[in-house]
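Subject: design request, 106 residues
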């Protein structure tokens, strides 16, 4: 069964976003450029981009283009069965423990 063209474009753009080919916060190439790259119609490209918007990879900005909002999430690890303070956990996960408005520790 043949795949829909928009699905192929969606998967390729998604892969490029995940691999960092388009930097976070930057605009993707123009609609006309992408139409030339993929050899498709405007509606097909827009449908693929709509799927990326739904999945939270890009954001459309009227009159400007499509911006990459994909930011990979780092995997954190947790200790099971051990006792560890919040500060120790944040250091192990390479995060910074900071004092909140209601925290009393320093």
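Subject: RE: design request

Done. Sequence follows.
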């Amino acid at each position: 069964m043949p795949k829909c063209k928009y699905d192929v474009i969606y998967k390729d753009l998604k892969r490029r976003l995940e691999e960092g080919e388009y930097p976070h916060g930057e605009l993707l190439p123009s609609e006309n450029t992408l139409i030339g790259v993929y050899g498709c119609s405007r509606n097909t490209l827009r449908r693929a981009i709509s799927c990326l918007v739904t999945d939270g990879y890009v954001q459309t900005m009227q009159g400007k283009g499509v911006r990459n909002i994909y930011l990979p999430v780092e995997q954190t690890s947790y200790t099971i069965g051990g006792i560890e303070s919040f500060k120790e956990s944040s250091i192990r996960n390479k995060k910074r423990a900071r004092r909140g408005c209601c925290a009393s520790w320093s």
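The two ends are 61 Å apart (CA to CA).
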